[in-house]
Amino acid sequence: MKRSGRSRRGAPQAARAKPRQRTGARVLRLRTYLTPSVPRSLFAYLATYLGERLGMATDLQIETHHSGPPRNVPDPFSEGELDLGFFCAPPYIWLQERPDPPVELVPFGLVFDDPRGAGRPVYFSEIVVRADHPARSFADLVDARWGYNDRESLSGYYSVVQTAAEHGADATFLGRLRDMGSHLASLRGLRRGIIDAAAIDSSVLALRWRRDPTLRADLRVVQGLGPWPIQPIVKRRSLPARLKTAVVTAIGALGETAERRRALRRWRVSGVAPMTDADFDVERRALARAQSLERALGAPVSAGAPSPSAR
């Protein structure tokens, strides 16, 4: 998925939410790596909600260059810069692979309004082309020009590499992959004919269908890949135990009242559902296959370089 707010030359943008009551001087620092594809307003709502529930000020930061902490650079949780994060599964998996993981999974995930999900915290990679493109399946797109959001994303990048290799792609495939910078930029590239195909997070696409009805006339979905567990919410492992418990309790209660459920519908969110680390095993297997195939097709060894454009 993808992002909003760090300017290319500066620190992440921040929005401070003031609670109704404040029990101490501590500020809960949150960062989303999923904006602007998932609107900033959703995470601002979540930050305000958590601040009110916990009686704390909250500081929301918006990262636009990556879908999560890149693999080969110091992460903000180990550095003590962040308390809570929203990002794609591959960076979570990479952080969990460390001998001393700096994050823990919040055991709840957002549930988006998608009949295929049946109330589960899952999403899909929608393979999207222009409406006039002749493709009827992924197999018709192995030789196409692909756009992707970034190389920390399962939905937009690793799912495509894996599926392309399964359909007989050769080493030329990676040369036809273009880093667009975000799911929204990929949709713009499709409309303009810069690329032929892209894998778009299903929750992102559903929001865009609703907010831009003309998009349905210009683009169409060839097929969906998945389901994948929804992007994790993570907390810093070194947070005080009492605060970690309070954060988990608050997130678990997110959809408990009719008022909050009505508010969340603005972003096609119906609430939250339980998740465990084992839910990400399907993504671990998919990621391992995709990275192996990526290397076989000639990709660089390192991953996580900044994308060339703001999201």
Molecular structure report:
- This protein is α/β, with parallel strands linked by helices.
- It has two domains: 13-112 and 231-283, Periplasmic binding protein-like II (D-Maltodextrin-Binding Protein, domain 2, 3-Layer(aba) Sandwich), CATH 3.40.190; 116-228, Periplasmic binding protein-like II (D-Maltodextrin-Binding Protein, domain 2, 3-Layer(aba) Sandwich).
- The longest helix is centred in the C-terminal third of the chain and has 16 residues, at 281-296.
- 32% of the residues lie in helices and 22% in strands.
- Helix 1 (40-54) packs across helix 8 and helix 3 crosses helix 10 (281-296).
- The strands form three sheets. A six-stranded mixed β-sheet has the order 1-3-2-4-12-5, sandwiched between helices. It has a five-stranded mixed β-sheet with strand order 9-8-10-7-11.
- It is globular, with a radius of gyration of 19 Å.
Here the CATH topology of the largest domain equals D-Maltodextrin-Binding Protein, domain 2
Number of helices: 10
C-alpha Rg (nearest Å): 19 Å
Distance between the termini: 11 Å
Descriptive labels:
311 residues, alpha/beta, D-Maltodextrin-Binding Protein, domain 2, 2 domains, five-stranded mixed beta sheet, disordered C terminus
What is the gist of this entry?
The protein is α/β, with parallel strands linked by helices and 311 residues long. It has 10 helices and 13 strands.
How is this fold's topology laid out?
Blueprint: E1 13-17, E2 27-32, H1 40-54, E3 57-62, E4 84-86, H2 89-96, E5 103-105, E6 108-112, E7 122-130, E8 146-148, H3 154-166, H4 172-175, E9 177-179, H5 183-192, E10 197-201, H6 202-211, H7 214-218, E11 219-229, E12 233-236, H8 241-252, H9 258-264, E13 269-274, H10 281-296
Parallel strand pairs: 2-3, 2-4, 8-9, 8-10
Antiparallel strand pairs: 1-3, 4-12, 5-12, 6-13, 7-10, 7-11
Helix pairs in contact: 1-8, 3-10
